[in-house]
Amino acid sequence: MVYRLSWVAGGAGILLALGRSSRLLRPTIEGLPWQAVMIAAALLGGAITWAAVAYRIRGRWVTVLNFIAATLTLVRISVPETTWFVFPTTASVPALGEELALARDVIGSGIAPVMPFAGIVAVMAVVFWALGAVLAWGLLANRPYVAVLAPLLVYLEFAVMDRRPGGVWTVWLMLAIGASLLAVMLDQRRSGTGLLTSRATRRALDRSLPSLGIAVVGAVVAVSLLAGQALAGAVPRSGYLAWRTSTSLTGEYLGSIQYNPFVGIRQSLVSSSTVPVFSARVEGGVDPRTVYWRLLTLDSFNGLQWHVGGGAGIASIDDIDTFEPPSTAFLGPVSRVTSTVTISQLQMDWLPAPYAPISFSSPDRTVERGLRVKRDDGSLRFDALTYRGMSYTVISQVPVPDLRVLSLGDDGDPSVVFAAAIEDGAFDLGDEPLEYTTRSLPDRAHFLDLPDDIGNRIPNFAHQQVAGLETDYERGLALEALFKTGGGFQYSTQIVPGHSATDLEAWLLDPSSPNYRVGYCEQYATAMGVMARAVGIPSRVVLGFTPGSYADDGTFVVRDRNAHAWVELWMPTQGWVTFDPTPRGDGVNPGALEAIPFAVAEYLEAALPEPGSPTQPTLPGQTPLEEDPTTDPSVVTTVPTTDAGENASPGLPVPFRAVGIGLLVVALVAALPVLKWGRRRSRVRRLEDGDIGAAWVEIVDRLTDLGEGPPLTATPAEIARRATAALAPLAVIYARAAYGPPGTPSPEDVAAAGESFQETEFQIVGRYSLGRRIASRYSLRSLRGRANISLASSGFGLPQAET
Q1: Rounded distance, CA 694 to CA 225, Å?
Q2: Which terminus in the chain has less CB density within 10 A, N or C?
Q3: DSSP state of 225
Q4: Which contiguous run of DSSP H or E holds residue 101?
């Protein structure tokens, strides 16, 4: 019995289980994506079982065969370095035991999604191997319900392990169950009401299946080894599509920063919750009350929000010499700090740590093995989600900006603000000579880039705030002071999160705006980062936590309300220096102003240009801005927005475009065979309804595409003699129907024609090579407008032209 629909339903069930398992395992960092391994395992299990059943191997030996093949696969995936080709060696057994023990520990204690260690991938591969084998055995052994429901039971187990709300997954499961039951029912109904079978047909089927099974096994192995590796680069490593998250992060890190229960950090920036997310013991030469906890940096602004846009990528700790590239490492003085962090309620895949880390260790080997580093800034990524009780130690070299060096201009003399403070005795350069190095920022243009449609109002406003200042450090202080000590800015979380470029302009410059100069750290960090770039200072926005509060046991407790965003500006003599523009009244976010020993705001006012002097001086590396007629803050320029919404992300990533092109190519390659398959299905249905000519035309077209099309003058009997003896009964019945008196074919004639048709098809399969049969599927000979004769079921013997 042929379960056509059940094969489709069973395959769909396996894919559904694979989709749910993607919520249990993190994406593969290096090598072939684990999803491809699961698909290959299911195909191999199904193909081997199919071939074994076709050869009439006993059930227990089919199990033994699958066990041996799956064991070889398990060893090859888990400990490939210990195998000889695909066969295990004496070193494979202990190495496999260690990997499986690690997999057991992670599965038992980890919080999904966990790291895809080799042992876990191997165990999952065996599960999908078994699903493929059960599907093939069940449908070939007339056990369809076992075949189609097995993957759905595995899906339910994955759903229990997931522990997250199912949402649309529950709908898909219900649809899959219903479709599977319906597919089996329709296959069984079709089997009982119209299959044209006989002993000869079954004998032909038995003779043809073994070679077909072997061919399928060979094809699956070839695809697994060749096509899988070729497609590895086109599979997105993130494992998430653009619509899987509502957070403001985009690119490779879209949706990766989360709190339990899966709330984006962007929304948590306005949280007032006192829930502890982690605690830390900080030891070293820096006051722990000033230590910020970094998660990662956002280096691109697309007009809507800041996001990760650089190409540094993620690297394994074994593949790097330093956490942060030497070209951007801090040049000024640093203080060595050791932080021992213990996770409480934090659940995310970025590890909080002081900037800049130089060493990492953990008592848990899974944590050490799962550590990754964001190469452009040294941020620490965990290849899973953090969990309660997770502990690690980070040694960092915390920057301590040298104010004496930062106070100097390009000529080596104190800049205007610091010169005035020195003159008043508020600042002292000291007597020791200053030694420092000036360097340029790699890819500086990237950290100055702003959208073309940003307009002139925000840049003009930024230039007004830094007019008369000489160095980037003074300009950074002026921008921070604007938000913290002047301009009427207020800190509040009672506003709607997320503002577009137009909202930012109105927030800064339009007094009629509902949220005019009132906001939380995202608005302030976004505004300062954009304004710094507008005046020529490379900038980036940082996500993380403020220092937290001191506990009785000597640790610092960082709570949900400490989630924060701030700004880093590039100083050529030092490196990335922290500025925090958010005017919080609780003093938990000390910025650059707090490190200055004098009231910077007073000296900034003294440095303003004299009345009548230009308010938009040309800054180093900048060209003068065009005059903007709308510099009046009360005038709001409306910038058109797209319908994509606030969370619109930059263009479609290259891997997705590659996958789309690949799907188009596959569709084009499959178009002609699918067309002929549909044509054959239509003719078989017509044969069952009594149209004898439909079967005859199908055989003639098959022979034509194989390059042995009969002459137009040949009679049906002559065609049958040239082709195969199995075609003779159909030829006789067709000739009698085509040239005899009109009438309705008898059920006996229809059954005999059907048996002859099926036997002829099996003879063709055994007569021609696989390559020639595949080539015939792409032949156009039978589609060249040739008028074929078929018989309408309503008029036996009446010819009907078929196009």
Answers
A1: 42
A2: C
A3: I
A4: helix 92-109
Element (H, E) at 279: strand 276-284
**Using H for helix, E for strand and C for coil, what is the string for 3-20?**
CHHHHHHHHHHHHHHHHH
Helix axes 654-688, 770-777, angle to 10 degrees: 90
Cα separation values, 516 from 378, 396, 419, 490, Å: 36, 39, 35, 9
Q: What is the pLDDT of residues 105-117, one digit of tens each?
A: 666 655 567 777 7
**How far, in Å, CA of 338 to CA of 285, rounded?**
10
The predicted-structure confidence for 544-556, as pLDDT tens digits, reads as follows 898 888 887 778 8
- Identify the DSSP state of 518: E
Residue 169, amino acid? W
Q: Which residues, in sequence order, are CB contacts of 525 under 8 Å at separation 6+? A: 306, 541, 542, 565, 566, 567, 581, 582
Kindly compute the dihedral angle of the four CA atoms of residues 501, 505, 506, 509, in this order, to the nearest 10 degrees: 170
For residue 632, give the DSSP letter. S
**Residue 491's beta-bridge partner residues?**
519
Q: How far is CA 293 from CA 8, 273, 279, 426, 707, in A?
A: 51, 18, 11, 31, 73
Concatenating the DSSP letter of every residue in 186-213 gives HHHHHHHTT----HHHHHHHHHHHHHHH
Nearest-angstrom CA–CA distance, 341 and 251: 28
- Paired with 341 in beta bridges are 280, 392
Residue 213 has, within 13 A of its CA and on its CB side, a CA count of 22
CB atoms within 10 A of CB 122: 25
Of all helices (H) and strands (E), which one includes residue 788?
strand 788-791
Q: What CA–CA distance (Å, rounded) separates 557 from 341?
A: 10
Of 36, 111, 37, the C-alpha closest to 78 is: 37
Put residue 348 in one of left, alpha, beta given phi > 0 → left and psi -120 to 50 → alpha: beta
pTM of whole model > 0.85? no
What is the tens place of the pLDDT at every residue in 683-734? 888 888 888 888 888 888 888 888 888 887 788 888 888 888 888 888 888 8
| pLDDT tier for residue 250 given thresholds of 50, 70 and 90 | very low
In 308-355, at which residue ranges do the beta strands (DSSP E only) sit?
314-316, 334-343, 350-351
CA 566, CA 553: separation in Å to the nearest integer?
29
298 in Cβ contact with 541 (< 8 Å): yes
Give 258's strand partners: 264
Strands, E assignment, 344-403: 350-351, 357-361, 371-374, 379-382, 391-399
Angle at 440 between CA 620 and CA 601, to 5 degrees: 50
